[in-house]
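From the methods appendix. Each design record in this collection lists the tokenized structure first, followed by the designed amino acid sequence. Records were kept in a plain field format so they could be parsed without special tools. The example shown here is representative of the layout used throughout.

RECORD:
FOLD TOKENS (303 positions):
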């Protein structure tokens, strides 16, 4: 919210969170536009989000007209100012579409993956120990004058990167996507006629035992010296549809897990809670847990 709209207002964030939740439930639902169905609720949520963002844009344009400038330029400012080689600027509808997409993609997917990584590590103490030791070693090698993480240090988190990749493989954020055939397409011996909509199931690839032995097992070490073949690791899609935020998402998750492993531990209250699978795989209780502060250790405490 701060990066995109220059706002950290709790009431605004909570309101948008409710609308985005309804929107997410309808994204992968059957397109039944009748009251009570997830798709219908998602359309209403999108209208509410559009109205909220339009109000924010109107206010920003008013401030600019009155020469009231914010302390820091945010994404909305950038979208209002950007223009192509012909001097054309984005209209409000285009700005809103960009904000709608990136606010959602930048929040839900990263938080979802960070949650599962923490859960899997809590279930497997041997992997938790190894991941934590790597982070402690990074702190030990750090010059005493340095404050905070550097990109170089994050690139040295080889095992944590394995943890994140294994989490993305085992709990694919986007289980499925809908695609419309623009031409007749031959797929697995069948012809998909032009205009037909097909459901692409990403997770089946990640659980293929020929690619990943013991595919339902959480094992970050499987990524040691392993590079997946094209089309066999698709947490962010592939080809021209590849998520443009994939590197940013992994960076955010790495930073969160670095601080979490060094300073906290997770204790789920309902570890045997069953799962829900739409719109994304998660415990039905939304992973209710106690987060405990770890007592000060020999590792230099991060400010």
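DESIGN:
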């Amino acid at each position: 919210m701060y990066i995109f709209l220059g706002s950290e207002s709790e009431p605004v964030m909570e309101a948008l969170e409710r609308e985005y939740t309804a929107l997410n439930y309808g994204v992968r639902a059957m397109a039944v536009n009748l009251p009570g169905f997830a798709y219908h609720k998602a359309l209403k949520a999108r209208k509410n989000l559009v109205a909220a963002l339009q109000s924010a844009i109107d206010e920003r344009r008013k401030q600019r007209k009155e020469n009231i400038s914010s302390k820091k330029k945010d994404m909305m400012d950038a979208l209002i100012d950007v223009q192509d080689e012909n001097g054309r600027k984005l209209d409000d509808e285009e700005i809103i579409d960009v904000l709608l997409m990136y606010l959602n993609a930048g929040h839900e997917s990263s938080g979802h993956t960070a949650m599962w990584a923490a859960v899997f590590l809590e279930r497997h103490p041997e992997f938790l120990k190894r991941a934590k030791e790597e982070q402690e070693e990074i702190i030990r090698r750090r010059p005493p004058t340095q404050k905070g993480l550097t990109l170089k240090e994050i690139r040295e988190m080889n095992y944590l990167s394995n943890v994140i990749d294994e989490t993305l493989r085992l709990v694919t954020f986007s289980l499925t996507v809908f695609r419309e055939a623009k031409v007749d397409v031959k797929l697995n011996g069948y012809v998909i006629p032009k205009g037909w909509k097909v459901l692409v199931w990403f997770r089946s690839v990640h659980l293929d035992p020929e690619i990943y032995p013991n595919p339902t097992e959480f094992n970050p070490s499987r990524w040691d010296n392993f590079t997946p073949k094209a089309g066999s690791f698709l947490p962010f899609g592939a080809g021209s549809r590849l998520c443009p935020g994939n590197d940013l998402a992994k960076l955010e998750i790495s930073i969160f897990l670095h601080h979490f492993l060094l300073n906290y531990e997770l204790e789920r209250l309902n570890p045997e809670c069953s799962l829900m699978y739409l719109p994304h795989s998660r415990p039905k209780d939304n992973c209710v847990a106690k987060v405990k502060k770890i007592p000060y250790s020999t590792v230099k405490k991060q400010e």
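APPENDIX NOTE: The first helix runs from residue 2 to 5.
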